[in-house]
Amino acid sequence: MPLKTIPIKTGALLFLASLAIAGCKSNPNLRANKKQISFKTIQGITYTEVSRTQQNGLSFNEYGYHLNPDWRLRFVSADSVALFSPVKKAFLNFPLALGFDSVIYTNHSFLKMRQMSKDSLVFELLLAKNDSLDVGGAKVFMKFYADNYITDKLHTTAATLQHYKTQDTLFVMQLVAKANLDMKNSFAAQQPVQLISKSPRVAVHKFKTVADLALNNNNTSADYMNPEYGITINKAYGDFDYSFSVYVDKAGKMYYGEPLTAFPEGTYRDNYILKSTAIMNSYIKQYLRNIPGETLGMKHASLISLHVKGVAGNNNGIASR
Q1: 12-163 sits in which CATH class?
Q2: pLDDT higher at 264 or 308
C-alpha cells in the first residue's frame, strides 16, 4: 500500500492550516489541540522504520500487498527532514510542513505523530483527498527505532526487527491455500512470476519502476500488484500486437485471463480473444519457461499482464505497453 499523495498547489503548510480550521469546525474535539508539533528534542537522531502494519497488526493485506518498512529519516530543522534514498545511497533533505494536531507533511505523505521519544517514533498514515484530510487515518502505522537504540539497547539489527511475524506467515498461508484451490482467488506475489525465454527468437523483459526519492518517484506498488511483461517474438508468422492477462498457477502453467485492450463487446473482441489465446498456447507456452510467483517462500497462483509483439521476417522489435 503506497503512501497517499496529492498535489499541493498553494504549499503544504497553508494546506495543513486550512485543513485544521475546517477540521475544527466539523469536530470540536480538535479545537483543544492547535499547537504544532516540534521535533527539536530529537533533531539529528537517525531512525529506521522497523515495522509498517495495519490496525490488525498484519503487514500483508488480502490482496497480497506487503507494507514494507523502508523509511530511514532524521529531523534536520523545524522545516526540513532527511530521508535515505536507496538509489542515491545517501540522505536527501526534504521540506517538512507542520500542521495542527500532530500532523506533518513530507515526501508527498501526510502523517500523524502517535508516539515520539529519542528511542522510537510511531506515525499513522493519513489519507488526503481534494481539500479534506481524514484525521481518522488509514489505519496504517509506521514504527521507527533510533539506530543507536537498536544496536546499544536492543542489541540487534534493523533487518531482524523487520522480519515477518508469525501472524503474517499464518495469514499468507491462508491466502495461498485459497489461491491454489481456485485461481480466481489469486493474489499478488511478493516474488513475481519469472518468464524465461528458451529461444533466441523470443525476448522477454519485465517492466520495472525504479524508486528514486530525488525524482519524487517512490511508488513502485504497480510493479508489485500488477506485474507486466513485454514479449517480443521475432520471425513470427506475421506482425501482431496483443495485450492480455494470464493466470500462472503454482506449477507455472498459464491460463488465459482477459484482454487488456479497451473495445466494445462483439465480434472484434471475440476475435481478439481467439487470436491472443492461440498466441499464448503456441508461441508463449512453447518458447517460455515459467517460474511461478511466491510469497514468503510459498508458491501460489497469481495474475500477470503480457504485452506480446510478433515481428515477421528477420526484423527485430521490442514489445511495449
Answers
A1: mainly beta
A2: 308
